[in-house]
Records
---
Amino acid sequence: MRLPQLALLALTVCPLLTGPAQAAPCGGDFQSFLSAMAAEAQAQGLPDSAIHAFLDNAQLDPKVIKADHGQGFFRKTFLDFSQALISKSRIQNAAIYSKKYNAAFTAAEKKFGVSRGIILAFWAFETDFGQVQGTFDTRNALVTLAHDCRRPDIFQPQVLAAIALTAKGDFAPGQTIGAWAGEIGMVQMLPRDILERGEDGDGDGKITLKTSAADAILSAAHMLQFYGWRAGEPWIQEVTVPQNLDWSKSSIDTELPSADWAAMGVTAKQGNLANLPASLLLPQGRKGPAFLVYPNYKVLFEWNKSFVYVTTAAYFASRIQGAGPYDAGNPDPALSPEQMTTLQKKLAKMGHDVGKIDGVLGALTRSAVQVEQQRLGLPADGWPTADLLAQL
């Protein structure tokens, strides 16, 4: 394992990875942008050979911007999203890969405390266990997103990390391909995460996330541990809730001891409630599936910011480790994207912070919905309905 070398490079690169490159203006002339990125890389002591190898032939990729603006699947409900992603074949393949790479999963759990179920779930969703790793030129994807003004603070440091990986011989500019957002390999990690938390799981002296399942498994575990994963603890558990519950408590922001939930009549569908702080999650309101989520669940938002993605991955991981199929219930119909946009505009006009008005039911919109449901005397479960929209 090359941990000493990784640690040294992390020390070299980390100062600049805390924010955007200081001299690289976004959105302007592309060649000027590349020159500014080169100057920033030089200021951080990265070798000229790697800087030129990475930046000299870099190009903007309009397909990357199109993909970034077109993430429509995040508008799906939890039921639609989870039923689309969790197939019988994926459940079967998870069992196959769990057995095939048992040694790597065992090592990941021993070293980093991360359960194999969550790694298998992300591995399945990100690349179908390495089968679909993306077709975008990673260098061009990174510089395109770093040049774009939406999130330069995220992607400019990733460009610099990729230059550091180039210097190590672990990135081939113009040859490395991956996802549109610059992620690489079986579990789709960004260059900075590879640089700082990549693991040589197969002992060959290299970190090769595109072809080595063991490297990918150990690296994913290291990343989750870094973001706060707590060894030996669950992350999500399906529950049954009484119909007279105070629905205003059903929020990811409301955390209570599991004993308090039990006192309110919340019971586990399988086994017992964990003796941990927990939040009651109703992805589609009180008439749909119900889960208690524990501290490890929130760690998963460091992997992906989407509520439906994280909740689906968490649930799938629990299925892989023995949980049964959820009870879908009979939730009220979801608002259309147009209705959701109208709802967000109304809530914003009333003074609520709903974040970006984009037709996506995010955490801020859910919180605002709950406040208005309480004000109107409706069940405050955070699930927006046509009736709520009409009353507003």
---
Amino acid sequence: MPQFTSPPNPEIFNAQVWDIVNEIPRGKVASYGQIAKMIQPPEGVDAETYLEFGALWVSGAVASSPDDVPWQRVVNSKGEVSEKNGADARRHKLLLEDEGVVFGVRGRIDMKKYGWNGKIK
């Protein structure tokens, strides 16, 4: 299996991610993997490789999103904000709380309650 640090055409992939993230309603969240599943594997990337790297690529796209993309609405599959982001993790959590998203005692979002169903307008 080839090793990819980014999708073959990051500009196109990132734009697809940002379009999807823009559809996530206020007060809802989606996971990196969920968004990756909504995008076809880029040309030249087989399904198995995409399954391995897609969520990571979505994470990179979210991290580099323009200011008007609600990046805070994307979390990991456990409903957590990544603590390795330091101060950004705190900001991430505060932005979601401002939208009415509640974190449990273990720092997780109830994905059944706050998870986005993936329906695009």
---
Amino acid sequence: MIKSELIQKIAEENPHLYQRDVERIVGTIFDKIIDAMAEGHRVELRGFGAFSVKRREARQGRNPRTGDTVSVDEKYVPFFKTGKLLRERLNDE
């Protein structure tokens, strides 16, 4: 499912809301999650999962095409850990 499909499904299930309002709500939720993670905070949605940021150390890597050694800088990457309810629904059905 992509973002536009999510918006469409929410709008269909809530006919009292305009689609543009649903787009704004979904966009705001995603923006707030991104903002919190950019500040280094953990975002937990009970039953769904938790978004966090992990730090990857600088390291020496290899260019797969040439085999040359390259320096890979330190970076931060998003990490998602599923919640109990999500894991149960995926494995029970």
---
Amino acid sequence: MSTTVHLIDDDESFLRSMTRRLGGHGYRVASYSSVAEFLLRPDPEDPGCVLTDLQMPRRDGFELQEILAASTNPLPVVFITGKGDIPTSVRAMRGGAEDFLTKRVQTSELISAIDRALARNKQERAARLQRATARQTIERLSARELQMLLGIVTGMQNKEMAEEYEMSERTVKYYRTMLTRRLDIYAAVDLVRLVQDAGISIKELKSMADAAPPGPLHEE
């Protein structure tokens, strides 16, 4: 997937000049004259960042910032505007903007902001991939394995899990072994980290274990 700087401004002359300016520094640039046009782009999940004007007809830069924050691919935003003040810049930064610049910004400062935004996007995409992978791994576990995982991350001993799930301690040990072998994770702290990486709460993990078909109980 190509990394793209998405440039949004309703000033056509600014779009053309800025596209040339950024292209001359080696960036792949896609330009749009409105937020609506940007939202119809064919590659909404690709990496990159957004360089956008603040004041535009219909949807402005702040509305775009909110839309991106709620999307599956929340590209970092750099505002570049002809009109800005301290309250406006504070609002932008509180909303998660990477930077808030004026259109007379020095090229070095602009490039620095874009590079930070692209680096941030790369880190955030990696974190989302790690979370999705960890969640998928846990979602593939059987009900018994989920019970063992829940017991381990909540600090239960084998005897406590045996009482909780109405099975013998030998059976608990069997399912714990099945869990660790399947995940290839053998330390409790690493199992806890897997659940944290997946963004799964204890409450959600319990719900997953309760909802999964338990299957026949293996008795040792």
